[in-house]
């Protein structure tokens, strides 16, 4: 099944296009890179109306739908800490090796079944599972983003969220030329004021503020800013 025929969420698209050619685990080993994955997962939950923000806390609105089953462990942390402020919840997710690993493996296994990534095992004694995306899969995603952001096609909420994250993480420059990046950013500015995107844009900015603060604090406390998965 081709990637663009799948119902790709923000986190799924981010997982695919941010995975490195040799080892996709590099995406989550670094605290700053890991934060963008967590950010995309939170946006998936918000876009599905599973969560919302109120009074500096994450409010649980709905049960986790089957389409977001890869966020089971992720959502468990949110539920267990629902009375804590959002910074505390984000910090607990970012530092929870089990949750990050479960989310990573769940995404990788789903795409392996569909033939969009190849699973590899590294290490001599302790085998470590890693997933390498097919070049065609990533090309399809970038083409889809390009057609929605630069063409006349309607833009999905998930592509809107992903593009915001790519701008924030400075990954947009990897896939688009200068003139294209300018056009994409201009369209984002217009869409951010549109009623259909205003709510998720506001949430994305709130998540961004909290994520930056928490990530910087964790990075200072952890000398290497890396975790061993």
Automatic annotation (TrEMBL):
Superkingdom of source: Bacteria
UniProt-recorded name of the protein: Uncharacterized protein
Organism listed in the record: Apilactobacillus ozensis DSM 23829 = JCM 17196
